[in-house]
What we know:
globular
Amino acid sequence: MEMKKQKKIIGGMILVLAVTACASFFKSAAEEIAQEEMSEIYQNEIKTIYTEAYQDEVETQIEEEKEEGKPSTFGQCLALLGKPFILLCFIGIMCHVGIDVGTNTTAPKILMERIGMGLDDAAFATSLYFIFRTAGCFLGSFILRKMSPKSFFGISVVMMLIAMIGLFIFHEKAIIYACIALIGFGNSNVFSVIFSQALLYLPGKKNEVSGLMIMGLFGGTVFPLAMGVASDTSMGQNGAIAVMTVGVLYLLYYTFRIRK
């Protein structure tokens, strides 16, 4: 029963992530088309619809459920980090976002450093990463119907680990692209699984846990900083890859702490 509940939570989050990714990708094109084709007649009709909907909403009385107890303070939310599993989830979110932002910024630099590729051509690596990340979000909801979250999470992390090793060893353009694609696909559903695990661990404090997990997004600032320092050493971009590999190894450790 708990497995079905977890898959439902993860599936919903994956759908939101996938729709968000596609929406941002097509946003600019959609806005241009809408501005050109929408006439004043349609604008007036839309205004009328919104006005009627607003009047109906005002006239309709909706009884909202009253919240029991007092709202949690910021300190009480942070206190949840005292629970070992919540702390593991929080650090896991940091690693996930750090790898996401790190790959986005480092992938073009790897191609430029090793192959001598120009900035404009190397920028395709970022697009490739997001293409496979979006594909992973869509496919994740279907894969989870046949596979447990723990197994799926483990496979995703192993994919990223293989990619990191590949980025250390190989200097061929095709293999570097393949490694970037593996990271994108593997990192696409990590957030959903960790988030759902945290919610199921403390179902009575969903709001507090949700806010705490979102705070873990600041990992996107910590990792690039460490990667920048590491890449300035004699290791070059291998230093940045090493920092991301630490995050992947942590996620591998987290895999064994996931409840079935």
